[in-house]
Design a protein that fits this description.
There is one protein chain. By secondary structure, the protein is α+β, with helices and mostly antiparallel strands. It folds into two domains: 108 residues, no CATH class; 70 residues. Helices cover 32% and strands 19% of the residues. It has five helices and eleven strands; from the N terminus they run E-E-E-E-E-E-E-E-E-E-E-H-H-H-H-H. Strands 1-7-8-9-5-11 form a six-stranded mixed β-sheet, with helices on one face. A hairpin with a 6-residue loop joins strand 8 and strand 9. Helix 2 runs antiparallel to helix 3, helix 2 packs across helix 5 and helix 3 packs across helix 5. The longest helix has 25 residues.
């Protein structure tokens, strides 16, 4: 078990989007999402009653390779540490925290939370996680990757024509042809979507296939 300090690096947007462990840049293995921002974050607790012979109580130390972050009376658990496939917020007053139940809010993202709980339970049993509910379609992933590549190109100082030439055209685009080129409006639309994605639209991706109550590019 490894313990890390947590520092806020994301601005408020209804909830705190994420925190990171340590002093490094945010990477998949050290991002700590909240359950409000990402429905695959599970709130775990310990019930007093046992409901069946298969009802397990798990000491967090049993998980092995994981990160834990203590905040007040809660432990944030990333397991396994290298991939953070499962993300838990454990409510406990014990020095050696243990859990035996998952809390599933009856909200619009219930199916995703249920799927995350199912995959966590299968992982505890050493079974394959199975298919993931609500995975982004490949075509949607490709579109968002294109949006972000265009955004990165503009940040490095590339012109719209250069971005279109690299990402969308098989032939060089002469500067004299750019004013009336058919890709001119397309690259503007792509960069518009990229701006919305970077400005907060990525939060919609965290809730896919559910909606967060406003129009998104998902």
């Amino acid at each position: 078990m490894e313990k890390f300090s947590v520092r806020l690096i994301s601005p408020l947007a209804g909830v705190r989007d994420f925190k990171i462990t340590g002093e490094n840049l945010p990477l998949p293995e050290n991002i700590v999402w909240t359950e409000q921002a990402f429905p695959r974050v599970l709130r775990a607790t310990k019930m007093a009653a046992t409901v069946s012979s298969s009802h397990r109580t798990i000491q967090l130390s049993e998980l092995g390779n994981f990160h834990t972050l203590q905040q007040a009376k809660e432990f944030v658990v990333l397991w396994p540490a290298s991939m953070s496939t499962h993300r838990l917020i454990a409510e406990t007053r014990e020095e050696s925290p243990s859990i035996n139940a998952i809390v599933l809010p009856l909200d619009g993202a219930f199916e995703t939370r249920l799927d995350a709980a199912r995959r966590f339970r299968r992982a505890l049993s050493g079974r394959s996680l199975g298919s993931r509910f609500g995975a982004l379609p490949d075509q949607t992933k490709i579109r968002h990757i294109l949006n972000l590549r265009a955004h990165d190109g503009r940040r490095t100082g590339a012109t719209y024509r250069q971005i279109a030439e690299v990402l969308l055209s098989r032939e060089p685009i002469a500067p004299r042809d750019w004013r009336d080129h058919h890709l001119r409006h397309k690259i503007r639309a792509i960069l518009g979507r990229a701006d919305r994605l970077v400005a907060g639209g990525y939060r919609d991706l965290l809730f896919y296939p559910h909606r967060r109550g406003r129009t998104s590019d998902c």
